[in-house]
C-alpha cells in the first residue's frame, strides 16, 4: 500500500500516514511559469494499492486538476488500484438542475475522477448523499460525527437542543439528537442569494436551552449566523455550531466575529489559516480516515466506522 498527497492538505495526509504507521509517498509537484502543473511520482507504484489524499477545497479548480494529474501519473506507472480520498468534495452543492440551463457539476466531477483513473472513492460528509450514485465505481462515505461526538460528550451540555439550520440538514440533526439524548429544532430559511440567507422561523422549543447547530459545511457562514441570531432572539442560552467542513472566506470570518455563536467546532478536512476573534475548535479526522484506508486495503468492512454509542451516524 502507498499513500500520496496533493498540496491541498498535506498536514492531514501526514497525520493519516502517522495513524496507520506508514511513510507518505514521495512526489514532486511544481508549477510551470504559465500556471500548468508538473508532477512526478518518485516512488515505485507498480502493482501497488494506492491512495491519493486531496480535498477539493479552494482553490477548487486547481486542486481538482492536481488530483486528476496525479491519478493519471499513477495509472501510467501501473498502480494496481487507485483510491481517491476526498475529505472534502468540491462542487457537491451543484448536484441537481434547480433552474433552466445549469450544469450538474457534481456529476461532471464524478465522471472526470473516473476518467482520470480512480477505481474507488473515499469521501467524508458529502453535501448531498445521492452524489454516491453519480459514480459507477465503489464509494465509501464516512461521517465526522463520531469524532464530533467524542468532543461534545466532554462538554456535558445540560438542556440541549440540536438545531438544523435548514430542512436539508434534518437527517444529520436527528442523528445528533438521538445520540446525545437531546430535543430537536429546525430553522425554516429562505435563501436570497449564494451569500445571503433570510431566516424565517424556528420549529421546536429553544427557550432557556443550550443550542447545538449542526451542518455539513459553511463558507460565508450566512446560514449559521442567521440561525444563531434567531435562536438568541427566541431565548436560547449558549450557542455552539458543529460543522464538518469550515471553508471560511473573509465574509464568513467577519460574520462569525459579530455573531451569537460562542464556539465553532469543525474538523481538519480542509486546510485553514489561523483565525483570530473567533473561538474555533478543530478536531482531527486523520484517525478515522486512516482506519478506513487500512480496512479498504485489507478488504474488510468499513461499516462499523459509522457506528457509535449503539447507534449510527446516518
Q: Tell the overall outline.
A: globular
**Tally of distinct domains:** 2
Most strands sheet: 7 strands, mixed
Order of helices and strands: EHEEEHEHEEHEHEEEHEHEEHEE
Radius of gyration: 20 Å
Enumerate how many helices there are, as a single number: 8
Taking pLDDT < 50 over at least 5 consecutive residues as the criterion, the unreliable ranges are none
The total of beta strands comes to 16
Percentage of β-strand residues: 25-35%
Mean pLDDT over the full residue set = 91
> How far is the first residue's CA from the last residue's CA?
30 Å
Name of the top-level CATH class of the largest domain: Alpha Beta
CATH level 3 topology of the largest domain: Rossmann fold
Please give the order of strands in the largest beta sheet.
10-9-8-11-12-13-14
Secondary-structure class: alpha/beta
The percent of residues in helical segments reads 25-40%
What is the correct CATH architecture of the largest domain?
Answer: 3-Layer(aba) Sandwich
Amino acid at each position: 500500500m502507498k499513500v500520496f498527497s496533493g498540496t491541498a492538505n498535506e498536514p492531514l495526509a501526514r497525520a493519516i500516514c502517522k495513524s496507520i504507521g506508514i511513510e507518505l509517498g514521495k512526489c514532486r509537484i511544481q508549477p510551470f511559469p504559465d500556471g500548468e502543473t508538473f508532477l512526478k511520482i518518485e516512488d515505485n507504484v507498480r502493482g501497488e494499492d494506492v491512495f491519493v489524499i486531496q480535498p477539493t477545497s479552494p482553490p477548487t479548480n486547481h486542486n481538482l486538476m492536481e488530483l486528476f494529474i496525479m491519478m493519471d501519473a499513477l495509472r501510467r506507472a501501473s498502480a494496481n488500484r487507485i483510491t481517491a480520498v476526498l475529505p472534502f468534495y468540491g462542487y457537491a452543492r451543484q448536484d441537481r438542475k434547480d433552474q433552466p440551463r445549469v450544469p450538474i457539476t457534481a456529476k461532471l466531477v464524478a465522471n472526470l475522477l473516473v476518467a482520470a483513473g480512480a477505481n474507488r472513492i473515499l469521501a467524508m460528509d458529502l453535501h448531498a448523499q445521492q452524489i454516491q450514485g453519480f459514480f459507477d465505481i465503489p464509494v465509501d462515505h464516512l461521517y465526522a460525527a463520531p469524532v464530533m461526538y467524542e468532543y461534545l460528550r466532554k462538554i456535558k451540555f445540560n438542556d440541549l437542543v440540536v438545531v438544523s439550520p435548514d430542512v436539508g440538514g434534518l437527517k444529520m440533526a436527528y442523528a445528533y439528537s438521538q445520540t446525545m439524548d437531546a430535543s430537536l429544532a429546525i430553522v425554516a430559511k429562505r435563501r436570497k442569494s449564494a451569500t445571503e440567507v433570510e431566516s424565517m422561523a424556528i420549529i421546536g422549543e429553544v427557550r432557556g436551552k443550550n443550542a447545538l447547530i449542526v451542518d455539513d459545511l459553511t463558507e460565508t457562514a450566512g446560514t449559521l449566523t442567521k440561525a444563531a441570531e434567531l435562536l438568541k432572539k427566541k431565548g436560547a442560552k449558549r450557542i455552539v455550531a458543529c460543522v464538518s467542513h469550515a471553508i471560511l472566506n473573509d465574509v464568513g470570518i467577519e460574520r462569525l466575529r459579530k455573531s451569537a455563536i460562542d464556539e465553532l467546532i469543525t474538523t481538519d478536512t480542509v486546510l485553514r489559516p489561523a483565525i483570530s476573534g473567533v473561538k474555533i475548535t478543530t478536531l482531527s479526522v486523520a484517525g478515522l480516515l486512516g482506519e478506513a484506508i487500512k480496512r479498504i486495503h485489507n478488504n474488510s468492512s468499513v461499516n462499523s466506522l459509522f457506528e457509535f454509542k449503539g447507534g449510527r451516524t446516518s
